[in-house]
Protein backbone atom coordinates (compact mmCIF):
# COMPACT_ATOMS: atom_id res chain seq x y z
CA UNK A 1 0.00 0.00 0.00
CA UNK A 2 2.87 2.36 0.78
CA UNK A 3 4.52 1.61 -2.59
CA UNK A 4 1.18 2.16 -4.34
CA UNK A 5 0.75 5.51 -2.58
CA UNK A 6 4.29 6.57 -3.58
CA UNK A 7 3.68 5.62 -7.22
CA UNK A 8 0.38 7.50 -7.33
CA UNK A 9 2.09 10.57 -5.88
CA UNK A 10 4.82 10.40 -8.54
CA UNK A 11 2.28 9.95 -11.36
CA UNK A 12 0.32 12.96 -10.09
CA UNK A 13 3.47 15.10 -10.06
CA UNK A 14 4.27 14.24 -13.69
CA UNK A 15 0.65 14.77 -14.76
CA UNK A 16 0.59 18.20 -13.09
CA UNK A 17 3.85 19.10 -14.83
CA UNK A 18 2.38 18.04 -18.20
CA UNK A 19 -0.65 20.26 -17.57
CA UNK A 20 1.63 23.16 -16.61
CA UNK A 21 3.56 22.69 -19.86
CA UNK A 22 0.30 22.64 -21.87
CA UNK A 23 -0.80 25.88 -20.18
CA UNK A 24 2.53 27.46 -21.08
CA UNK A 25 2.10 26.43 -24.74
CA UNK A 26 -1.40 27.93 -24.78
CA UNK A 27 0.02 31.13 -23.33
CA UNK A 28 2.70 31.11 -26.05
CA UNK A 29 -0.01 31.01 -28.72
CA UNK A 30 -1.73 34.03 -27.13
CA UNK A 31 1.54 35.96 -26.92
CA UNK A 32 2.20 35.29 -30.60
CA UNK A 33 -1.20 36.77 -31.49
CA UNK A 34 -1.51 39.69 -29.05
CA UNK A 35 2.15 40.66 -28.48
CA UNK A 36 1.35 41.61 -24.86
CA UNK A 37 4.50 42.39 -22.79
CA UNK A 38 2.89 41.41 -19.47
CA UNK A 39 1.86 38.07 -20.97
CA UNK A 40 5.40 37.65 -22.33
CA UNK A 41 6.83 38.15 -18.82
CA UNK A 42 4.32 35.64 -17.43
CA UNK A 43 5.33 33.15 -20.13
CA UNK A 44 9.02 33.56 -19.23
CA UNK A 45 8.25 32.89 -15.54
CA UNK A 46 6.10 29.87 -16.39
CA UNK A 47 8.77 28.44 -18.72
CA UNK A 48 11.44 28.81 -16.05
CA UNK A 49 9.19 27.06 -13.52
CA UNK A 50 8.47 24.13 -15.87
CA UNK A 51 12.16 23.79 -16.76
CA UNK A 52 13.25 23.75 -13.11
CA UNK A 53 10.55 21.25 -12.15
CA UNK A 54 11.54 18.98 -15.03
CA UNK A 55 15.23 19.17 -14.05
CA UNK A 56 14.38 18.26 -10.44
CA UNK A 57 12.19 15.33 -11.49
CA UNK A 58 14.74 13.99 -13.97
CA UNK A 59 17.39 14.13 -11.27
CA UNK A 60 15.19 12.17 -8.85
CA UNK A 61 15.20 9.32 -11.36
CA UNK A 62 18.85 8.67 -10.40
CA UNK A 63 17.71 8.16 -6.80
CA UNK A 64 16.58 4.60 -7.41
CA UNK A 65 18.36 2.78 -4.59
CA UNK A 66 16.28 0.55 -2.29
CA UNK A 67 16.54 3.05 0.59
CA UNK A 68 17.00 6.35 -1.27
CA UNK A 69 13.53 7.66 -0.51
CA UNK A 70 13.67 7.20 3.28
CA UNK A 71 15.01 9.45 6.02
CA UNK A 72 18.62 9.41 7.17
CA UNK A 73 20.74 9.20 10.30
CA UNK A 74 23.74 11.51 9.88
CA UNK A 75 26.69 11.35 12.28
CA UNK A 76 29.74 13.63 12.36
CA UNK A 77 32.89 12.67 14.28
CA UNK A 78 35.87 14.93 14.96
CA UNK A 79 39.10 13.51 13.59
CA UNK A 80 42.75 14.54 13.62
CA UNK A 81 43.18 18.14 14.74
CA UNK A 82 42.03 18.32 18.38
CA UNK A 83 40.00 21.43 19.26
CA UNK A 84 40.18 22.57 15.63
CA UNK A 85 38.46 19.39 14.44
CA UNK A 86 35.85 19.62 17.17
CA UNK A 87 35.02 23.15 16.04
CA UNK A 88 34.94 21.89 12.44
CA UNK A 89 32.46 19.19 13.48
CA UNK A 90 30.12 21.86 14.83
CA UNK A 91 30.55 23.90 11.64
CA UNK A 92 29.57 20.86 9.56
CA UNK A 93 26.51 20.27 11.74
CA UNK A 94 25.44 23.87 11.12
CA UNK A 95 26.01 23.40 7.37
CA UNK A 96 23.78 20.33 7.23
CA UNK A 97 21.11 21.96 9.39
CA UNK A 98 21.02 24.90 6.96
CA UNK A 99 20.76 22.48 4.03
CA UNK A 100 17.93 20.47 5.63
CA UNK A 101 16.08 23.68 6.49
CA UNK A 102 16.26 24.82 2.86
CA UNK A 103 14.98 21.39 1.75
CA UNK A 104 12.07 21.51 4.17
CA UNK A 105 13.29 18.43 6.04
CA UNK A 106 12.71 17.89 9.75
CA UNK A 107 15.72 17.28 11.97
CA UNK A 108 16.00 15.81 15.44
CA UNK A 109 19.15 15.82 17.58
CA UNK A 110 19.67 12.21 18.60
CA UNK A 111 22.97 12.53 20.46
CA UNK A 112 25.96 14.85 20.84
CA UNK A 113 29.22 14.94 22.79
CA UNK A 114 30.62 18.37 23.59
CA UNK A 115 34.25 19.21 22.86
CA UNK A 116 36.67 19.93 25.71
CA UNK A 117 37.31 23.57 24.78
CA UNK A 118 34.92 24.24 21.89
CA UNK A 119 32.81 22.52 19.28
CA UNK A 120 31.66 18.90 19.31
CA UNK A 121 33.45 15.58 19.48
CA UNK A 122 30.51 13.91 17.75
CA UNK A 123 26.88 14.51 16.86
CA UNK A 124 24.07 12.43 15.36
CA UNK A 125 21.03 13.91 13.60
CA UNK A 126 17.85 12.16 12.51
CA UNK A 127 16.67 13.74 9.24
CA UNK A 128 13.10 13.07 8.08
CA UNK A 129 11.90 13.81 4.58
CA UNK A 130 11.51 12.29 1.13
CA UNK A 131 14.85 11.27 -0.43
CA UNK A 132 16.87 12.51 2.58
CA UNK A 133 19.08 9.41 2.51
CA UNK A 134 19.29 9.40 -1.29
CA UNK A 135 20.79 12.89 -1.25
CA UNK A 136 22.90 12.67 1.90
CA UNK A 137 24.66 9.43 1.00
CA UNK A 138 26.76 11.68 -1.24
CA UNK A 139 28.23 13.23 1.93
CA UNK A 140 29.72 10.07 3.42
CA UNK A 141 33.44 10.37 4.03
CA UNK A 142 36.16 12.60 5.47
CA UNK A 143 35.77 16.39 5.14
CA UNK A 144 38.90 18.56 5.43
CA UNK A 145 39.08 22.21 6.53
CA UNK A 146 42.04 24.55 5.95
CA UNK A 147 41.93 27.95 7.69
CA UNK A 148 43.65 30.36 10.06
CA UNK A 149 42.82 28.91 13.45
CA UNK A 150 40.81 31.14 15.81
CA UNK A 151 42.30 29.06 18.65
CA UNK A 152 45.94 29.79 17.70
CA UNK A 153 47.37 32.96 19.28
CA UNK A 154 50.01 33.05 16.52
CA UNK A 155 47.34 33.01 13.79
CA UNK A 156 48.82 30.05 11.98
CA UNK A 157 47.09 28.01 9.32
CA UNK A 158 45.64 24.70 10.52
CA UNK A 159 44.17 21.65 8.79
CA UNK A 160 41.45 19.68 10.52
CA UNK A 161 39.29 16.68 9.65
CA UNK A 162 35.85 15.27 10.44
CA UNK A 163 34.18 12.03 9.40
CA UNK A 164 30.59 12.11 8.13
CA UNK A 165 28.59 8.87 8.30
CA UNK A 166 25.13 8.50 6.75
CA UNK A 167 22.82 5.49 7.02
CA UNK A 168 19.16 5.10 6.05
CA UNK A 169 16.64 5.43 8.84
CA UNK A 170 15.02 2.05 8.25
CA UNK A 171 11.48 1.48 9.43
CA UNK A 172 11.55 -0.02 12.94
CA UNK A 173 7.77 -0.38 13.13
CA UNK A 174 8.04 -4.04 12.15
CA UNK A 175 4.86 -6.01 11.66
CA UNK A 176 5.21 -9.70 12.43
CA UNK A 177 2.66 -11.83 10.58
CA UNK A 178 3.02 -15.58 11.02
CA UNK A 179 1.59 -17.80 8.30
CA UNK A 180 -0.05 -20.87 9.91
CA UNK A 181 1.35 -22.99 7.07
CA UNK A 182 4.86 -22.05 8.24
CA UNK A 183 4.31 -23.62 11.67
CA UNK A 184 4.92 -27.19 12.79
CA UNK A 185 2.94 -27.75 16.00
CA UNK A 186 3.46 -30.64 18.42
CA UNK A 187 1.27 -31.29 21.44
CA UNK A 188 2.49 -33.43 24.33
CA UNK A 189 1.98 -34.07 28.03
CA UNK A 190 3.64 -31.67 30.42
CA UNK A 191 6.51 -33.01 32.48
CA UNK A 192 5.80 -33.27 36.19
CA UNK A 193 7.13 -34.57 39.48
CA UNK A 194 4.82 -37.58 39.44
CA UNK A 195 1.68 -38.46 41.34
CA UNK A 196 -1.11 -35.90 41.06
CA UNK A 197 1.21 -33.37 39.34
CA UNK A 198 1.51 -35.44 36.17
CA UNK A 199 -0.76 -34.08 33.43
CA UNK A 200 -3.16 -36.74 32.12
CA UNK A 201 -3.99 -34.51 29.10
CA UNK A 202 -1.65 -33.23 26.38
CA UNK A 203 -1.39 -29.53 27.15
CA UNK A 204 2.25 -28.67 26.38
CA UNK A 205 3.00 -26.99 23.03
CA UNK A 206 6.07 -27.08 20.82
CA UNK A 207 6.13 -24.63 17.87
CA UNK A 208 8.66 -24.75 15.08
CA UNK A 209 8.80 -21.84 12.61
CA UNK A 210 9.88 -23.62 9.41
CA UNK A 211 11.32 -20.63 7.45
CA UNK A 212 13.69 -19.65 10.29
CA UNK A 213 14.05 -22.88 12.26
CA UNK A 214 13.09 -21.13 15.51
CA UNK A 215 11.62 -23.48 18.13
CA UNK A 216 9.48 -22.43 21.10
CA UNK A 217 8.04 -24.71 23.78
CA UNK A 218 5.58 -23.87 26.54
CA UNK A 219 4.13 -26.13 29.23
CA UNK A 220 3.64 -23.87 32.24
CA UNK A 221 0.02 -22.94 31.65
CA UNK A 222 -2.91 -25.10 32.70
CA UNK A 223 -4.53 -25.43 29.29
CA UNK A 224 -3.32 -26.20 25.79
CA UNK A 225 -4.87 -22.92 24.54
CA UNK A 226 -2.98 -20.85 27.14
CA UNK A 227 0.30 -22.60 26.33
CA UNK A 228 -0.28 -22.04 22.62
CA UNK A 229 -0.98 -18.32 23.10
CA UNK A 230 2.15 -17.94 25.23
CA UNK A 231 4.28 -19.84 22.73
CA UNK A 232 2.97 -17.67 19.85
CA UNK A 233 3.77 -14.52 21.81
CA UNK A 234 7.33 -15.73 22.42
CA UNK A 235 7.73 -16.69 18.77
CA UNK A 236 6.56 -13.25 17.62
CA UNK A 237 9.10 -11.64 19.95
CA UNK A 238 11.93 -13.79 18.60
CA UNK A 239 10.94 -13.10 15.01
CA UNK A 240 10.84 -9.38 15.80
CA UNK A 241 14.33 -9.59 17.31
CA UNK A 242 15.54 -11.50 14.25
CA UNK A 243 14.16 -8.79 11.96
CA UNK A 244 15.87 -6.07 14.00
CA UNK A 245 19.19 -7.90 13.64
CA UNK A 246 18.68 -8.09 9.88
CA UNK A 247 18.14 -4.33 9.79
CA UNK A 248 21.26 -3.72 11.89
CA UNK A 249 23.27 -5.90 9.48
CA UNK A 250 21.88 -3.96 6.50
CA UNK A 251 22.65 -0.63 8.16
CA UNK A 252 26.21 -1.77 8.89
CA UNK A 253 26.63 -2.79 5.22
CA UNK A 254 25.32 0.57 4.02
CA UNK A 255 27.48 2.44 6.52
CA UNK A 256 30.53 0.92 4.86
CA UNK A 257 34.03 0.21 6.07
CA UNK A 258 35.40 2.42 8.83
CA UNK A 259 37.62 5.24 7.52
CA UNK A 260 40.04 7.24 9.67
CA UNK A 261 39.30 10.96 9.66
CA UNK A 262 42.77 12.13 8.68
CA UNK A 263 45.21 12.80 5.84
CA UNK A 264 44.70 10.99 2.55
CA UNK A 265 41.08 9.96 3.12
CA UNK A 266 39.23 13.21 2.46
CA UNK A 267 36.40 13.32 -0.07
CA UNK A 268 36.10 17.11 0.03
CA UNK A 269 38.31 20.05 1.01
CA UNK A 270 37.08 23.40 2.32
CA UNK A 271 39.82 26.03 2.03
CA UNK A 272 39.36 29.41 3.74
CA UNK A 273 43.04 30.53 3.60
CA UNK A 274 45.12 31.58 1.67
CA UNK A 275 42.27 31.48 -0.90
CA UNK A 276 38.63 30.39 -0.72
CA UNK A 277 37.53 27.21 -2.44
CA UNK A 278 35.55 24.04 -1.85
CA UNK A 279 36.53 21.04 -3.97
CA UNK A 280 35.13 17.51 -4.10
CA UNK A 281 38.00 15.14 -4.84
CA UNK A 282 35.75 12.41 -6.24
CA UNK A 283 34.11 14.49 -8.98
CA UNK A 284 36.54 17.46 -9.16
CA UNK A 285 33.55 19.77 -8.80
CA UNK A 286 34.70 22.99 -7.13
CA UNK A 287 33.39 26.46 -6.29
CA UNK A 288 35.01 29.62 -4.97
CA UNK A 289 32.14 30.61 -2.65
CA UNK A 290 33.20 28.66 0.42
CA UNK A 291 30.96 30.66 2.79
CA UNK A 292 27.87 29.85 0.69
CA UNK A 293 28.66 26.13 0.89
CA UNK A 294 29.13 26.33 4.66
CA UNK A 295 25.74 28.06 4.77
CA UNK A 296 24.17 24.93 3.30
CA UNK A 297 24.45 25.36 -0.46
CA UNK A 298 25.32 21.72 -1.10
CA UNK A 299 23.01 20.73 -3.95
CA UNK A 300 25.61 21.23 -6.69
CA UNK A 301 28.08 18.93 -4.93
CA UNK A 302 25.42 16.32 -4.16
CA UNK A 303 24.07 16.28 -7.71
CA UNK A 304 27.58 16.14 -9.21
CA UNK A 305 28.43 13.13 -7.05
CA UNK A 306 25.20 11.24 -7.73
CA UNK A 307 25.55 11.79 -11.48
CA UNK A 308 29.18 10.67 -11.20
CA UNK A 309 28.16 7.42 -9.49
CA UNK A 310 25.55 6.73 -12.17
CA UNK A 311 28.20 7.33 -14.85
CA UNK A 312 30.67 5.05 -13.03
CA UNK A 313 28.12 2.25 -12.82
CA UNK A 314 27.34 2.63 -16.52
Distance between the termini: 32 Å
Assembly state (oligomeric): single chain
Report the principal-axis shape.
flat
The largest sheet has its strands arranged as: 2-3-1-5-4-9-10-11
CATH class of the largest domain: Alpha Beta
Write down the secondary-structure element order. HHEHEEHEEEEEHEEEHH
Strand content is: 15-25%
The chain-level structural class is alpha+beta
Characterization of the model:
The chain has 314 residues and is of the alpha+beta class. It folds into three domains: 2-60; 72-172 and 259-313, 2-Layer Sandwich (Alpha-Beta Plaits), CATH 3.30.70; 180-251, 2-Layer Sandwich (Double Stranded RNA Binding Domain). 43% of the residues lie in helices and 24% in strands. The protein is built from seven helices and eleven strands. The protein has helices spanning 2-34, 37-60, 83-103, 132-136, 224-255, 290-294, 299-313; strands at 72-78, 106-114, 120-128, 141-148, 157-168, 183-188, 204-209, 214-218, 266-271, 277-280, 286-287. A hairpin with an 8-residue loop joins strand 4 (141-148) and strand 5 (157-168). The longest helix is centred in the first third of the chain and has 33 residues, at 2-34. It starts with a helix and ends with a helix. Mean pLDDT is 85; it is low at 193-199.
Please give a quick description of this structure.
The chain is an alpha+beta fold. It contains 7 helices and 11 strands. Helix content is 43%, strand content 24%.
